[in-house]
Amino acid sequence: MPRGKTTGKALGKSARQLLFSEALRQKKHSSTADSSPPPHAITSEDTQGVSMDRILQERSAVGRKLEGMDNAIAALTAETRSIRLEIAGFQSQISGLDHRVAVVESQVALQTDRSGTLPPPQ
């Protein structure tokens, strides 16, 4: 997964969400009687009073969260690989045991056919 592309898109979206929420908050404080739906396009008039530092802080926080999520995904992926290897090992052991059982069954069948009775337990 290309980290730069995903991170850039997500951070841009977060900044837009921050701008939108700040604009909404300011509109609610300025006129509580206005119950019109929120605008779909954010204009410079909607973002007045929102500092660039605040936007950059939010982008940085989102970047840290994304990095943490990337690390968690990598750890889960490694754990999944480890579990798959263990499963493959168990499947191999089961296959070996199946083969042993088949050999023993065939030996019992041969001895039973010769004598007509089951052999004594070993």
Q: What is the overall shape?
A: rod-shaped
Number of strands: 0
Mean pLDDT: 76
Instruction: Output the helix-strand order.
Output: HH
Quote the distance from N terminus to C terminus: 59 Å
Question: Measured on Cα atoms, how large is the radius of gyration?
Answer: 33 Å
Helix amount, in percent? Answer: over 70%
How many helical stretches? 2
Strand content: under 5%
- Quickly give the structural class: mainly alpha
Biggest beta sheet summary: none
Poorly predicted runs are: 1-9
Assembly state (oligomeric): single chain
Short description:
The protein is an all-alpha fold and 122 residues long. 75% of the residues lie in helices and 0% in strands. It is rod-shaped.
Q: Any overview of this molecule?
A:
The relative contact order is 0.07. This protein is rod-shaped. It has 2 helices and no strands. Helix 1 (3-30) packs across helix 2. With 122 residues, the protein is mainly α. It has helices at residues 3-30, 52-115. The chain is 75% helix and 0% strand. Residues 23-52 are annotated as: Disordered.
